[in-house]
Design goal:
The structure is a single chain. 43% of the residues lie in helices and 18% in strands. The chain is α+β, with helices and mostly antiparallel strands and 474 residues long.
Length: 474
């Protein structure tokens, strides 16, 4: 018997609450797969558009147990067999990581049943319902496509609309019943925008549809809910938004990213995911000028200490890269420098008077330079009479500089050929020259019009620039 009953009660209450806390911070998922003979099972999870392995379980007493004292972040997980990597997807929400699943190896999803997981029972019921409706819609669609009968096609169309309506009604019911559960969040993440009936001309209706669709595209997506980054539809939703609804211009993309990041809650997982993946996307973009997005994100987020997850060394490198890129962004005035002709005559970039200047930085030992040089030569012969000048800089100094003029493997154009024999020019630093060839096209005011152009593309790009100038003049 406890001497101080009040103290004993508090002690018991504390132990009960602590035990409950530990339980909510741990996971215990038991899996039984009838007909599965391998002794190993994997637990994977979604993160954006990728999947990773979180845990491994080994067969014991004819079942597998994924168990740990750490939290399983809420999201969609995968129970993956070996060696064929068949899988069943399950949901793990906060305080809902202790359950059992039994299924058959011939079809992990079809035969799955759960204990102690209403969330996953409801999830699999939903999957079954949607699957049946999809099969029905596919069947009607095939009949409709195969028929030439207008009346029959109209009947099929009405049937498809009915199926679509049934799916939407079922979704709304599940969302209402589930509240803020992960299943409701999952369904919301897949919902499309319902467009109202607009009036006007065809072009006016199309424009109104676009504006409405874009404005309401993320209506069902809660950017303060960290669970969405661990659902398989989130990255696809972002990709579709930026690829189909946003002009591929750095200013437009930067503006939209500011909008999305502002909808996040501080430095939550969604904020971290969007910021880090979009920085990487800007750094590796196939579109010219997306380094402007990179600079924008670094200056407004990384440089302001908002990327709290990144270490100091990596942060310093990112900021250095952005600082190097900033003077070279599209529409910036190209940094001035001096290089030298073979006879040591100095040439200053800003001293060249021409409607267009192509800055070509190359090296004699650059294989890509050798393969592409003839494209630049042909280009110059075609455009030199149209106000185009080429300033070619051989990226060698010191004893190696003499190789700039040997022309062993290819012939240089009859343009302004220069080098930096004594390594005194600042162009390497100003233009962040880490590889060759580097190509920039400038206008008469030395504004950067475009850059990073392959030799085989330069004629096409120049024609587009001429066309833009012609349209601006009209």
């Amino acid at each position: 018997m406890c001497k101080y009953s009040k103290f004993c009660f508090i002690q018991i209450l504390f132990l009960t609450l602590f035990s409950s806390f530990l339980s909510s911070q741990s996971y215990n998922i038991k899996v039984k797969i009838n007909g599965y003979t391998n002794d190993t099972l994997l637990l994977g999870y979604h993160y954006g558009d990728k999947q990773y392995i979180r845990d491994t379980a080994y067969k014991k007493n004819n079942e597998f147990v994924f168990k740990g004292d750490t939290l399983l972040e809420p999201g969609m997980y995968l129970i993956v067999t070996k060696p064929d990597h068949n899988y069943a997807q399950v949901l793990v929400d906060k305080d809902k990581a202790n359950f059992s699943i039994e299924t058959k190896n011939i079809d992990l999803t079809k035969y799955a049943t759960f204990k102690n997981s209403k969330l996953n029972t409801d999830f699999f019921d939903y999957i079954t319902f949607v699957g049946e409706k999809r099969m029905a819609a596919d069947s009607v669609g095939k009949k409709m496509q195969a028929s030439a009968d207008t009346a029959f096609k109209k009947k099929c169309e009405l049937e498809l609309n009915k199926i679509d309506s049934e799916v939407k009604s079922h979704q709304e019911k599940v969302i209402k019943d589930q509240g803020k559960s992960l299943l409701a969040t999952l369904i919301n993440s897949t919902k499309e925008v319902d467009l109202p009936e607009f009036k006007g001309t065809k072009d006016e209706i199309q424009e109104q549809n676009y504006k409405y669709y874009k404005a309401h595209y993320f209506d069902y997506m809660d950017f303060t809910d960290d669970r969405i980054v661990r659902l398989p539809f989130f990255q696809g939703k972002l990709d579709k938004y930026f690829a189909n609804l946003i002009m591929q211009h750095p200013d437009s993309i930067s503006k939209e990213l500011d909008f999305l990041l502002s909808r996040c809650k501080g430095n939550n997982d969604v904020f971290k995911y969007i910021l880090s993946t979009q920085l990487s996307a800007a750094a590796n973009s196939k579109y010219v000028g997306m380094d402007g997005v990179y600079v924008h994100l670094v200056e407004n987020y990384y440089g302001k200490g908002l990327a709290t997850w990144i270490d100091d060394e990596s942060l310093a490198k990112i900021i250095r890269d952005a600082n190097a890129l900033k003077p070279l962004l599209i529409d910036k005035i190209a940094p001035d420098f001096v290089v030298y002709k073979k006879d040591s005559t100095p040439v200053r970039l800003h001293g060249i008077n021409s409607e267009y200047i192509v800055l070509l930085i190359w090296a004699p030992d650059c294989s890509h330079c050798k393969k592409s040089m003839h494209h630049f030569v042909d280009f110059y012969e075609k455009y030199k009479s149209k106000g185009v000048e080429v300033l070619a800089i051989c990226n060698k100094s010191g004893p190696e500089e003499k190789s700039c003029w040997e022309e062993k493997d290819f012939k240089l154009g009859n343009w302004i050929n220069t080098s930096d024999p004594h390594g005194l020019s600042t162009y390497r630093y100003l233009y962040d020259v880490k590889s060759t060839p580097q190509v920039y096209i400038l206008d008469k005011n030395k504004k950067i019009l475009t850059k990073k152009i392959a030799g085989e593309q330069i004629i096409e790009v120049m024609e587009k620039l001429f066309k833009i100038k012609e349209n601006e003049s009209n």
